[in-house]
Amino acid sequence: MLVDSIDHPKPPNCTQGSVLGPFHTNDAPHLPIGSSITTDDAGEPILALCTVCDSSGRPLSGVKVDVWEADSAGHYDVQYANRQAPSGRCVMTSDVDGGFWFRAIRPVSYPVPDDGPVGRLLGLLKRHSSRPAHMHFMFEKQGLDRLVTTLFIRGDKYETSDVVFGVKSSLVVDLDRIDKKTAVEYGVPEGTLLLRHKFVLASARETEELRDKNAMEAMERLGLKTKLVDHLPVPDLD
């Protein structure tokens, strides 16, 4: 989280990042907008209606969007030895209005694997091993700073004690229920859970300028005379 915050700072009006996590894969299917990303019939259905725009509010079309989540048992597809095909994940492309929507299941909280050194460390720290319910997103398009982020469901009992410190207040969201009009429009039952969110992406230039600014201000607070060379602070000996 610290490295991501330093390398990919976001202007105040942009969506903040979070950790990538170990369960992203490169074999997610490319699906058309409106598809279901899950094969888990035990999970509670949810409809996600999302948009993506730049820092000025202009819709961004043609953005590659990766989405992935755990199943209703709290496991990702890659954690199953008999995994036959990707599930709970997809790649979509935002439309001309910056929109993308899909059907999934309500995210659930789950423990990270704790049967090795991570578990021993957490035991010594007297910390639990659980993550709050969440869904992962990654956005990529030329000219934009790649955004890796996560939406967390408000009210989860682990919301304020995420084992990997990934929660930021701006990434905690509420779920609603779909009304009759929306149900008809999107072809889902009335009362289905609804996740609605607008993602705001920074340009690569915005992130680069903010990262440089933060680096110089940090050096000044330390009382160091520095300059930037290839965006890295080095001693200013001139």
UniProtKB/TrEMBL annotation:
The keyword Magnesium does not apply. InterPro entries: Intradiol_dOase_C, Intradiol_dOase_core, Intradiol_RC_Dioxygenase. Pfam families: Dioxygenase_C. Keywords: Dioxygenase, Oxidoreductase. The keyword Oxidoreductase applies. Residues 39-201 form the Intradiol ring-cleavage dioxygenases domain. Belongs to the intradiol ring-cleavage dioxygenase family. This is Hydroxyquinol 1,2-dioxygenase. It comes from Trichoderma ghanense.
